[in-house]
Amino acid sequence: YAPKLILLDISDINCIQDVAKEILNCYGCVDILINNASMKVKGAVQSISLELDKKIMNANYFGPITLTKAILPNMISRRTGQIVLINSIQGKIGIPFRAAYAASKHAAVGFFDCLRAEMEEFDISVSTVNPTFICSYHRQPAAGNWEASIWK
């Protein structure tokens, strides 16, 4: 198959269904789905807005599960497939100043652990990978601007 670039903002839940349809229309199926997008913010709980908490949860939890649920019926009908969640060690343990990020990663681990058990009967493999801390792109925020402290 010729590669095709399909852009997706995983935090925009409303467009994921259309992107999944585009992928399935183009290739007919997805053999392996690797959920590897993430967004995080560093700051004290009382300093992070609820709006930003929701943005982190959309990107790290609702995004991957929405995409997975869009692709899953095709895998189930074929009785084959592999789903991988690249998550974070913070999905297992929380550390100070990362509450929204850790909460979203804990939620994702819980969802994909349950999915693994449910998909066994369909021969669909579900894996979660929880690496320790990694370096990623980061921009330094202006004083008092927590929105700018998002890691992508």
Describe the protein in words.
The protein has 152 residues and is mainly α. It has a domain at 31-132: 3-Layer(aba) Sandwich (Rossmann fold). 43% of the residues lie in helices and 11% in strands. It is built from three helices and three strands. The protein has a three-stranded parallel beta sheet with strand order 1-2-3, covered by helices on one side. Strand 1, helix 2 and strand 2 (81-86) form a beta-alpha-beta unit. Helix 1 runs parallel beside helix 2 and helix 2 (50-78) packs parallel to helix 3. The mean pLDDT is 88.
Largest sheet: 3 strands, parallel
CATH architecture of one domain: 3-Layer(aba) Sandwich
Helix-strand string = HEHEHE
Mean pLDDT, to the nearest integer, reads 88
The oligomeric state of the chains shown is single chain
CATH class of one domain equals Alpha Beta
Strand content: 5-15%
Radius of gyration: 16 Å
Structural class: mainly alpha
Residues in helix, % = 40-55%
Q: What is the third-level CATH name, the topology of one domain?
A: Rossmann fold
Query: Uncertain segments of ≥5 residues (pLDDT<50)?
Result: none
